[in-house]
Each structure stands twice: as C-alpha cells, then as structure tokens.
Amino acid sequence: MGYSKDAFKGVSWITLLRFLTRIISFARLGILGRLLTPIQFGFFGIATLLLSLLEVFTETGINVFLVQEKSDINEHISSAWIVSILRGCLLSILILLLSPFIASFFNSPGARSIIALIAVVPFIRGFINPAIVIYQKELFFDKEFKLRSFLFAIEASVSVIFGFITRSAVCFVYGLIASVVFEVILSYVLFSSRPSLNFEHKKVKKIISRGSWVTVSGIFSYFADNTDNITVGKILGASTLGIYQVAYKFSTLPISEITNVVNMVIFPVYSKFSHDHIRLKKNFIKVTIVSSFTALILSSIIFVLAKPIILIVMGNNWVSAVPAIKILSVYGFLRTLFGNFAPLFLALKKQNYVAKTTFIRILGLVVVIIPMVKLYGMVGAGIAMLISILIEIPAILYFANRIFKDNI
Hints:
It is a single chain. The protein is mainly alpha-helical. It folds into 2 domains: about 210 residues, no CATH class; about 200 residues, no CATH class. The protein has 19 helices and no strands. The relative contact order is 0.13.
C-alpha cells in the first residue's frame, strides 16, 4: 500500500492549507489589531477560554474513534451524530449559565455579551454530519484543503467586515458563526452518507468508552495550554491577556504550522499500518527528523525577528508582546519536537500515554505559573510554559521507550 506517498501528499496539502490560513490570519490580525484595542482581543480570549474548556470536558472522541475504526464507519454515523447534537445543546446551555460568573471572575463585565453570543457556535456545530471525517480517514487531504480553506476564508472575511462595522470583539464571534453554518451545510452537500435519528445504545456506549482517554487527554491538554491564559487574565487583566494571546499565536507558529499539520496527516496514516511495527518505527523517525528541523528554523526566525514582525503585522500598540514571543518561541520548538509522539501513541491506541504525559506538564505549570506571572508578568507566563514542557519531556521519552521496547 502506498501510504508513504499518501502521507507525503497529505502533508503537502495540509501544509498548503496552514500556509494559506496563516496568511489570511495574519492579514486579519493586522487589520483588526488596528481597529480593536487589546482589551477587545482579551474579551474574545475570555469567551474562547470558556468555550474550549467546556468542549474538552464534554469531548466524546468521536473523530478519533471513526478514524481508528477498521469497519465501515457508516454503521456508527447516526449514533455519533446524536451524541454530537446532545453535546452541542449542553454546551450552549452551560455557556449561557456561566457567562456572568466568568465575566466576574476575570473582572471584565464587557466580556459577558461576547461569552453569551459564542454559545451559538457549539449548538450549530453539533449538527455537522460526522461523515465529514471521511476526508481524513481515507487520506483525501486535497479535498480537506479545499473545505477548510473555504471555511477559514469565510470566518476571516466576516470577522473583518464586522470589525469595520462594530469595532468590537463581537466581530470574531460572527466570523465563527458564519464558518460553522457553512460547515454544517457542506457536510451534507459533499457527503452521501447521511445520519438519521437512530439511537443505538451499544454503539453510543462503544464510541464514548473508546473515547474516554481522548476526553481525559483533551481536558489535560486544555489546562496545559490555557492555564497561562487564565492566570494572565485573572492577575494582569483582559488587556494584557489580549497582548499575551497575540504573542502566543506568533511565537508558537511551529506548533500550529508543523505539529498540527503533521499530526492531522500522520495519525490516520500510522493507523493504517499500526500492525506493522517495523514500518511504523521507520516512518516515525523520518517524520520526527523532518518536522523538528523545520520547527528549529521557524523558531529561530521568530526569536530573532520578533520585534519587526510584530511591528509590521500588528503595529506599535502590541510591541510589549516581543519579550514573551522570544521565550515562547523556544517553547514552541520543544512542543513541536516532542509533539511527534502523540500520533504514534494514538495510532497504537495508547491514548492513556498522551493523557498521562500531558498531566505531568500541567502539574509543572500549576506549580510555577502564579509566582512567575506575579514576578515577571507576561514574560513569567512564557517562562512557566517553558518549564512545564521541560518537565514533561522525560515522561514522553519513558513511554516512547516502552512502546519501542515492547511493540516495535
């Protein structure tokens, strides 16, 4: 089977997708960074923190299950769809109920309306046809590229248009709503497999039980990736949170542009020949070398050129993000380097390894984040993130050694 060729094509298509979306994203940031204040970015950041938190706590692992499943996924689409709809409704209700408390926690009453509006997103998203995962499962990454690039263009365009109209963080939410509406529509237009209201208890139970470690891993990943945002927002305020999140986006470019690209392609590819352990090991080594070398180059460029990049894209109001960008660029490289192990663990159905290593990173972060932020502000948050990944690395290597020793 030509999975190596498929993997190369997949990486090429998804890399092109990420490159295109980053260009659009930087253009959007550049425009909105001059239309909105840092505190407006902070309000949206608070809303997405809550949305992401609730999403990971209710994650069912449906997509991972469907990719891993060797049998015809049409047998599970209706059950997965019902679970997705119920989850979306639950998320929307929870966001609406929690919006006043979250705004109060961050001492940002202006964020309350943004939080309430973002509740629309998970409700609509719940109706997406689960068959949409077929593009990833069957390695149709050219089609995935066309779909995702179109949806992101919709999101960015609507955000910018409403940015000019409202001069408010609400423009980001309108962009998300527009994108997810189109995704729901296209998930039925592009795929012949259609779900129905056919609830099968055994299949639902199978999906949820298989995805339990994915859920746990997602929860741990959320806190590993957002404890810094929560701490910065609580201690330093919404305006500083807005600046810090921009710094994070710029500095962790290797994570989003390499790790996410590679993992999206490599996980289903690894799953195809997870039984061939020798082949799996060879491909893992190749992928790790290439992605790590590329990440090193990108991280070095970001570290050296942090100030001119932020000035060109965002303007003078955001120059205080530069010191944090430098620290986080090192963190971004290490996350990319050791992020290569996650799809390997998942392909071998070792979701628990991903959860356990991420939990260790959280423990390290929780111990140092508050004193670091109080002492050094945004830069302290970056240092805490760097310390957390250094603590996680030994655990990743330990579990990787177990896999290579026992299975490969």
